[in-house]
Structures are given as C-alpha cells and as structure tokens.
Design brief:
TonB-dep_rcpt-like, Plug_dom, signal, Maltoporin, Chain A, 22-stranded antiparallel β-barrel, cell outer membrane, 721 residues, transmembrane beta strand
C-alpha cells in the first residue's frame, strides 16, 4: 500500500520538462471548460460521439475515445421522459439499453444492468447500499435537478464496491454564468384518463441560477403530489411500494467560487424526500389469472408512511489545474445520510415495519498528469485514492434490531492510463486495490416468517460479532480504433468488486459467530467487443459482452426464506441501437438489448431468475419538429417475453414466473412561445395497454401481482427568465 502511494506522489511531481505538452486530442480533453460541455459536430449538433463523459475514467474525455459501452442521457432527453413520468426508474428503463424494465414502483428491485447489480451515484456520491440492498437507489433525487445521466455498462471498479453490472452517475445542473440571475418556474398536473377520480396530482418547481463576480450558483426546489394510479381498467394499483399518493420534496443548491483561473471551490447539497400518504391498502390478486391483479382498496395502512423520509447528499470539492507540472487535482469530501421505510407486515415475528439507514462519509483524491514522448505516443495518467466509511443497519420502527450497524471502511488507491498511439488508436488500462474492513457488533436475530408453512424460524440466535476483511486487485484494459467514421471498434476487459448484501446473510444467520457465516466478496469479469459508426444521416452502435463470476449473488428461497446462492455465474448478451434523420424535421431511432445468464450447480446449470435477467427489450422512437419551437416525441417499449422455468408442484417460485410479451407507447410534446414560455404535455401508455409489469410476473406472488399504469396525462407550463 505505501509503495503504491509513493508511486502516485512521484507521478504527480513530474516536472514540466518531463511531461511537456500533450497531443491535440489530450489538449482537447484538458481544455474542456465544464465536464458537461458538448463538442458540436459540423453535421449534427447532438452527435453523441463528440460528447464529454466523466464517469468512465474519472476524467473528462470524448466519448468517441472510450473503449467501453456508455449511454448518455442529455438534459433534452431527460425532459422528454420527465413529461411522461417523474419516476427515475421509468426514465432510465425507457432510455438505457441493457437496463431492466421499470418496476412502476418506488423500488427498483430486479432493474439490473446487463444482469448484475448497478452502482448509482449523484455527482460521484454513492447512493446504493451494498451492505443491505434496499433497491431504492434509482429514486434518490428529483430528475429536474439533472443536467445529464452517464451510464457505464459492464463490471467496473473505477468507483468501488457494488458496480458488478456498471454504474449510473447522476450529474447535477451547473450554473448559468451568462447572467447575474436567471431561472425558471414550472407548474403542472397529472391524472388518469381512464377513471380520473382521485388520480389528480400536481407539482411546482422553481430554479434560480447566475454568477456574481467570482461566485456562481444554482438553487432549485420542487414539490409534487402524485394522486392515485390506476390500471387500464380503472382499478387502483396496489399501494405497496406504489407510486400512489406520494408527497415528494427536493431541494438542491450548488455554489462555486473561482479563486482564480486555475483554482476553484464548489459545494453541493441535495435533499430528497418521498413518502406515501394514502387511504388504500393492498388486496391480493390471483397470480396467473390475468383478470385478478393485486389492487388498492379503501383501508387504514398500519405503521409510518412508506418511502424515503430523507436522503441528504453534500459535497465540497476543490478543482485545481496545472498544480504541479501540468497535473490537475480534484479533491472531494462528501457525505450521504439516507433512511428508507417499507411496509408494515407480518414478515418478522410479532410484526413490524423495517427501516434501513445508511450514513456515508468519503473522500476522493483524483489527479491527472499528461505526458508526451513523441508525436506517436502521448496520453495522460489518472490516479488517486478513495476513502469511504459506510454505516448501515436495518431496524424495526418499534426499536428492535434486524441487522446491526455494519461499519465498513474502504481504502482504495487506483490509477488509469490512457495512451494515444498516433491520432486514432486509444489504449486504456488501470488498476484499483480494494481494502475493505467491516466491523459487525454482537446481535440477536429476529424470527422470520416462512411463507411455505406459516411458522417463524431463525429467531433468538445470539451472534458474536467480529471483523471481516476483504482485499482484491481489480484490473481493466481496453483498446479502441477511431480512424474510420463508418466503423470504430473497441475491445475491453474489466473487473468489479462487491460485498453482496451482507445484511441479508446476517439477518438469517444460523451460526453464533459472524466469521462462520457464508460472507464472501464477489469479483465479476466482463469481456466486451463493441463498435460505433456513422454514414451520412445514419449513426449506430452495438456491443457483445460476456460476464463471469466464481461466486454468485442471486436470491434463492430455501425453506420459505430468502438467501444468497454462491454458485458460479455466467451472463452474456448484446445490444444494438441506431438512429436516422429522415429529413430536417424528423429523426427515428431504435435499440434492442438481450441478456441471458445461468448459474452452475453441482450437477447442472440453471437459468438465472427474473430478478437478475430481464426479457429482451425493444424501444423505438420518432422525434418530429413541425415548427422550430414545437417538438413531438413518440416512443414504443416492447418485449418478446421470457419463459425459462417449469412450475414446481404446480406453482412458480420467486424469480421463475414467465414474462409475457407486450408493447406500449408513450408520447410527449413541448411548444415554446415568446422565447421563454413553454407548454409541455406527456401521455403515458398512450393506447391504454392492459398488461402486467415485468417484476409482477417474475415475482410469482399473489400480493405482488400488479398491473402497469393505464393512460395517464401530464401537462405543465414553464416560464423562464
């Protein structure tokens, strides 16, 4: 460890004579004014291959030079989807190839990326809770504060624990520095068109932004109430994990201070709350009977309001350019304080309402040093250190402890080399050394309901705590050739590291000592070949991938209780996407993603369940601009389904339910008049398709057999100034 740190310090002190100036492409990277800058293409202003991406290697670089699969959602794309739904799970599920279908819930359980768990971040601050996966990390802030979303696909350790399938980084808005004060106000409403009664919701948001001398700022707030959600037949959807009757608050601020042209301080804070206040309770349906879904009926819900009572995120960053020998420095101190509650139930003995709390405190030191040995060999070295403290527990609101405070300390030095061999061949490689220590105190288990026989098992075991240590060296390498605009191929290998849902293991511990439980870290290897290209008005990209792990992280039910299967896993798939400009006023596009996976048992291989593998996803869209200030966006979302399992004793178990095919359409439109006034309209499930969510089908449960929304309208008015 000390040797690595000394190497890092030595690299950062390279003299100006040693590094000289970089080649033109490296200089292009360094001269990016902001990390969200878009380099405009001569033919098409929104050419994705010229956009800047940060999350792939923790340094601003042109997407065209990244040897891995990346999906970027621009501010415009986010707004198109936001006019249809304010649920980030919906927005991402409809926009990102390889990411699972939306759950239409406050929980994103089963919405994996390429069949594995995804790490969610806000400006690099981890939102996921890998010590106890609550599957609510995608809804960790309001989408109106987003400038863009960067999705890096495939196993990656660049940001640490939990990115087995990749990472999603929410990049928040930056200040408008052209004015002292500017901003916008938006008000809107949404409601069901099938049976509007009690479905009306509303939202209001306010944003201010500007720059005063050396200080720039952006401040915003939003409040939303959702009303009831109904299916295509007008029935109230189940309130459990439901989007019904939510009260959502979001407050955001980012303030920057330019000390001088090379030094800057920036502070960010975001507060998010989403809780359910409803007069409905769930009435179980009959799984497999299309006309008997789980619905909401009038009743008093026990316990406290479900949802996320709070999610605080804050960071303080220092950005320095040309500090030592052209080395740039980015140092960030951050914290997150998060609490989520699920429904009150009889899952635990004597009933109760679980709450998971996570507190993170972290520090990132990121340095970048350019170099040039000749006109054919040049590049940059990105290196630094991540320090993270994560304290996570699950307790019942009556004070009983389900999972004790797990205290994780993570120290991880890393480096990433990007080398240009001439102007067209990009080689990237890197290492990250994970050092993870988790302290678990003594605790006593609570009985968990066995839904097979109705008894409570596993309670009253006094477990001796202890320290768990995990160490792993993660490696990645990639190569991309960019000479031909028609075909720009890449090949890559990357690894990830995660401690998979330690809390679930501790909750059901049968041993009296933590060190005796089946707690092991998971390392995933991702192999990928991909390409991108363009021909006249057509642009396209694709990738084929293969992912392996010697230890699995799938949920299986044994004796009626969830546990983690540690059997080896193999996942494979491919993604294809293309878009074409029919003429100046109309674009069309489509993408297709396929993922499949199996785990290896002693005597056979079995398919991974629906909680890991989503069915094939097909999306297509058209954007029509009849006038310069009027755009119409029509989107299709479809699947051919997935049926890999046979029922056991006439019934499907968790994760094995067959998923039927469906096709649904969404519409959004916006019209701007008087330059700064905009009317937006969105229609979810345009043709009122009657179908079940993907998660409802694979969960194979009467209580979770919930349909998708029927036709729902959103309309808003925004005034900028």
């Amino acid at each position: 460890m000390s040797t690595l740190l000394l190497v890092f310090l030595a690299m950062s002190s390279l003299s100006a004579q040693q590094i000289s100036k970089t080649n033109s492409k490296t200089e292009k990277d360094k001269n990016v004014k902001n990390q969200d800058t878009v380099l405009k293409d001569k033919k098409e202003a929104d050419n994705e291959l010229q956009e800047i991406v940060v999350s792939a290697s923790r340094k601003a670089e042109i997407l065209d030079e990244v040897p891995s699969s990346v999906t970027l959602l621009s501010k415009k794309q986010i707004q198109q989807q936001l006019s249809i739904s304010s649920n980030l799970s919906d927005i991402l599920g409809a926009s990102v190839p390889g990411l699972g279908f939306t759950t239409n819930r406050t929980q994103n359980l089963g919405q994996t990326l390429r069949g594995r768990r995804v790490l969610v971040m806000i400006d690099g601050i981890p939102q996921s809770t890998p010590l106890r996966d609550g599957a609510k990390d995608m809804r960790s802030l309001d989408p109106t504060v987003l400038d863009r979303v960067e999705v890096i696909k495939g196993a990656t350790a660049i940001y640490g624990n939990g990115a087995d399938g990749g990472l999603i980084n929410y990049i928040t808005k930056k200040a408008n520095t052209d004015k002292t004060i500017s901003g916008s106000t938006e008000v809107g409403t949404n409601f069901s068109l099938v049976k509007p009664k009690e479905t009306a919701g509303f939202f209001v948001s306010q944003l201010f932004s500007g720059k005063v001398k050396k200080i720039d700022y952006v401040v915003s707030g939003r409040y939303e109430e959702t009303g009831l959600y109904r299916d295509a037949k007008g029935r109230v959807l189940s309130p459990e994990y439901g989007m019904n009757d939510l009260k959502n608050y979001n407050a955001f601020a980012k303030i920057g201070y330019d000390i001088n042209s090379n030094n800057r301080l920036e502070v960010m804070y975001n507060y998010f709350q989403s809780t359910q206040h409803t007069d409905y309770v769930a009435k179980a349906g009959v799984y497999g009977n299309f006309d008997s879904p789980t619905i909401g009926v009038k009743g008093q819900r026990p316990g406290e309001p479900e949802g996320t009572p709070y999610n605080h995120n804050a960071s303080l960053s220092y950005i320095g350019k040309n500090i030592i020998g052209n080395t740039d420095v980015n140092a960030t101190l951050y914290f997150q304080d998060y609490l989520t509650l699920i429904n009150y139930s009889d899952f635990f003995e004597n009933n109760g309402q679980p709450a998971t709390q996570s507190k993170k405190l972290g520090f990132r030191l990121n340095l970048n040093t350019p170099y040039e040995f000749s006109s054919l060999i040049s590049g940059n070295l990105t290196y630094g250190l991540d320090i993270l403290s994560d304290i996570t527990d699950t307790h019942l609101t009556d004070g009983r402890l389900v999972i004790p405070e797990m205290k994780m300390n993570n120290l991880a030095p890393y480096f990433q080399l990007k080398n240009m061999f001439g102007p067209d061949l990009v080689f990237k490689t890197g290492l990250r050394l994970e050092n993870v220590n988790i302290d678990v105190p003594d605790y006593t288990t609570i009985g968990i309901r066995n839904y097979v026989n109705g008894t409570y098992v596993g309670g009253g075991i006094a477990v001796n705590g202890g320290a768990l240590d995990f160490n792993a060296l993660m490696f990645n390498a990639g190569l991309r050739y960019t000479k031909w605009s028609l075909f720009k191929p890449f090949v890559s290998f990357s690894q990830s590291f995660s401690v998979a849902d330690l809390g679930l293991v501790l909750r059901a511990a049968k041993e009296n000592t933590v060190s005796n439980t089946s707690i092991k870290a998971v390392t995933a290897n991702n192999y990928e070949f991909g390409f991108s290209g363009s021909l006249d008005k057509l642009s396209y990209e694709g990738a084929v991938y293969y992912s392996t792990s010697k230890l699995g992280a799938s949920y299986v039910y044994i004796d009626g209780n969830p546990q983690i299967s540690r059997s080896p896993e193999k996942i494979y798939g491919f993604e294809l996407s293309a878009k074409y400009r029919l003429f100046s006023k109309m674009d069309i596009g489509a993408n297709y993603s396929f993922t499949e996976g199996k785990r290896e048992l002693t005597d056979k291989k079995v398919y991974l369940g629906g909680d890991r593998i989503n069915p094939p996803k097909i999306t297509a869209y058209t954007i029509f601009r009849p006038l310069e200030d009027w755009s119409i966006f029509l989107q299709m979302i479809s699947t051919t389904g997935r049926d890999r399992f046979q029922p056991v004793n006439g019934a499907y178990t968790y994760g094995t339910g067959p998923i039927k095919s469906f096709t649904a359409f969404n519409l959004s439109s916006s019209y701007t008049f008087k330059e700064k006034s905009t009317i937006r309209l969105g229609v979810e499930n345009l043709f009122n398709k009657d179908y079940y969510t993907v998660i409802s089908q694979w969960q194979s449960s009467n209580m979770n057999y919930v349909k998708e929304n029927g036709t729902r309208l959103t309309i808003s008015f925004a005034q900028a100034f």
